[in-house]
Amino acid sequence: MNTNVEAIPMVAEKTPFASIIKKNLREYGMLISLAVIMIFFQYQTEGTLLQPLNLTNLVLQNSYIVIMALGMLLVIVAGHIDLSVGSVAGFIGGLAAVLMVEYHWHYVPAALICLVAGALIGALQGYFVAFHKIPSFIVTLGGMLVFRGLTLALLAGQSVGPFPPEFQLLSSGFIPELINGEGLRMTSVLIGCLVSAGLFYAAMRERANKVQYGASAEPMVFFTIKNLVFAVAIIFFSYLLASYKGLPNVMIVMFGLMLIYDFVTNRTTIGRRVYALGGNEKAARLSGIKTDRLSFYTFINMGVLAAVAGLIFAARLNTATPKAGVGFELDVIAACFIGGASATGGVGKVMGAVIGAFVMGVMNNGMSILGIGIDWQQVIKGIVLVAAVFVDVYNKNK
Fold it and tell me: What is the pTM of this model?
């Protein structure tokens, strides 16, 4: 009897367009929502929203929210919450002002001390949450009050500044121009082209790996159109910024952190373990994951990023004030939830949190240009946040 079995080659499954859209509805839905919101405010503000000056201000105003959202995403994915990030950012800004302005420290060691202080604050809060099982809501709510009070004490209730000019460049500076261009900063345009090309190449390699190993891959036409749209958007964005002063330094910091955290969450063991922890802590612990230590690390990471955001915000204002950071935690948490993070943990993407932060930022900026009062701005942002969480719960129940 012939027992030979014909080998069946592994071929990537061709997924229909409708299935692709449905499978990635959350991710694509957020991108579409951001585009629609920008088009709406661009029309309502008669073109003011995407003017180079306003676009630069939009980046500067939301950079510290985006940076803190990267850390908050991991905390939320792990099944926790951190309400203290705004107070920690304000405290770190105050500490930086005292060291640089009153004690005349060089900005480099002063900034390093501030980052270490942020890590220690995160470790302190994470210790009580991870090893003593005190709910993170309670611990960080206490931290919010404690560090707001310490900021007032540290600054003696007064604003402290100005900072050294070199430190101000962290938030107010722009990348140096290496290519002469008449009325246009060609270095920024070139960087935008290189970034778009690099992201397109990385996406091509990822799709090729899926095809090679027989995994489900997007249809080539859909894949090409999607990534070309992203590439054109990046180049257009770079062109607009280049027509003013170029790419802000803080944008380079923000983009670098985005790439690092996207890599960590998608390509590393610790990233996958954070998702496993948030998805089912008991199962993760039984599988050998040290869940307590992992939760502890997420809070340390959050403390460091809150310190980075505090330094950037202080450099932008060129002074440290006792009110710095008030309300930041609301925008950061809202950015993560609007970007698709689940309130129950285990779900969320880095790019989703970034998009959520810019959704909030564009709404704030657009409503301010239109002259909408802060009262109605708060109402609208609250409705958007509740709607985003409702959609998450609805999809999960469905």
Answer: 0.87
